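Thread: quick sanity check before group meeting

JM: Hey all, I'm pulling together slides for Thursday and realized we never actually wrote out the predicted structure for the chain we discussed last week. Dropping the sequence here so it's in one place. If anyone has concerns about the input, flag it before I start.
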Amino acid sequence: MLKSKWLYLYVAFVMVFGLLLSDIAGRADASLASGNKFLGNVIGSSAPSDFSKYWNQVTPENATKWGSVESTRNTMSWSNGDLIYNYAQTNKIPFKFHTLVWGSQEPGWIGSLSAADKKAEVTEWIQLAGQHYPKADYVDVVNEPLHAKPSYKDAIGGDGTTGWDWVIWSFQQARAAFPNSKLLINDYGIISDPNAASQYLTIINLLKDRGLVDGIGIQCHYFNMDNVSVSTMNSVLNSLSATGLPIYVSELDMTGDDATQLSRYQTKFPVLWENPNVKGITLWGYIQGQTWQSDTYLVTSSGTERPAMQWLKQYLGGGSTPVVPAAPTGLTATAGNAQVALSWAASSGATSYTVKQATTSGGPYTNVATNISTTSYTITGLTNGATYYYVVTATNSAGTSGNSAQVSVIPTGGGGTGGNLVVQYKTQNTNATSNTLAPNFVIKNNGTSAVNLSNLKIRYYFTKDSSSALNAYIDWAAVGNSNVSATFGSTTGTNADTYMEISFGSGAGSIAPGGTSGDIQTRIAKSDWSNFNQSNDYSYDSTKTAYTDWNKVTLYQSGTLAWGIEP
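JM (edit): ok, ran it. Output follows.
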């Protein structure tokens, strides 16, 4: 009887233990990614119930930033960071500490200290972080060195002899404090700008020569990813890969309605994921209402997966045989001066698009552009007053769709003051209420002689909606980010109390006759990251998501108004 009892208990134990092992194995395999690359995400305050269903790496969104941990001097608040760290340890997934040294979200009290006290406080902060999270797999040591230098930079070495002594000092401290972690540098604006990548490599090589850096972090937020070309992405990845260091995509998100977001993921995610030097990708939020940019989410608040998430699951699971995409929908045409700007909704599964033009309704059509990877295209060199007809088709490896519905359009002389210079505008942020304004510009030269960009200034008009200080960012410029600068000025007029003025250095060069400046991608944010209300801004138009002549953005040549109407 005793033997039977123990045998029963033994069998029961084996069954329960087997079920536990099965459950653990199931959770380990539940995420989208497997193999030698991770696909992670951020956690804000606590892990969503479906986190492990998708992700197998975690980064705290704000909990381990210095300003969050030590908002009051010498009072450390680790609780939220501990919750996320313990989640990673329990689920046996990599944890990345984000971040040690950064010019944003630093403690407010640090700026009033002496240089010696600043250095002592930063040193203490790094040491305490290392003691608290000794099993951190990765550490973002310096965040955004090209864009957000800390107020205490000079106290920890300043520029010094290398130009980046403060960064080197930070990594030296981190190497001592986190001896078992991989040390990363992290910045934005890299994936879309080879010039910025070159500047970034200067810092990386200084660290590499000293054995201080273990990987390269590249933020891939929507303002760099939405409109970047695949060729630019590959160029940048190749440059970074030449260092021999692994690459970690640290803050990926892309915007758009369901179809547009899907198209962007289908086109660009594989470029990152399939690069052999990219060892992991971390998205920056995924649940509706819990992402820093409102339309970057992949799962609705009710748990429904958007098409981009559905595609990610299929892609990472091995995919299936593609089918011919449906004809594009939502084709629109906006008339300009001797040009037409077309835009359309993405077709699921499409890898490229073709634009066809006719001068008679219903055709015959001729191809005017093929292998287009985006959902917009501008045709130039048209005759003002003539009627043109357009359709678009979608293509993938399985074949080409039928034609979209036809649209017709008549190019006109455009708006503005009638000169040779024209400003085209589009917005990358169609949300009326947002903490970021994202106007993009192109300057066209319709004249017969070249125009020096250094003689030109663009003004974009908006309302501040508060007294907070403003920050401007040049996310990408075809003429080189370093050749473009932004300042703010005050104005009075309809729906405007402030303008952002874009100016150009001598290195920007000139615009040839009939040429353009190329993209100038900008962002505006408040120092406290509070929301704007764009709906009442003079220069803002949420419908302009493809470049269009826009006379509510003004252009000045040598101080004289050359385009647009001031508010």
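AS: nice. The CA atoms of residues 267 and 351 lie 7 Å apart. Confidence is low (pLDDT under 50) at residues 1-29, 414-418.
JM: adding both to the slides.
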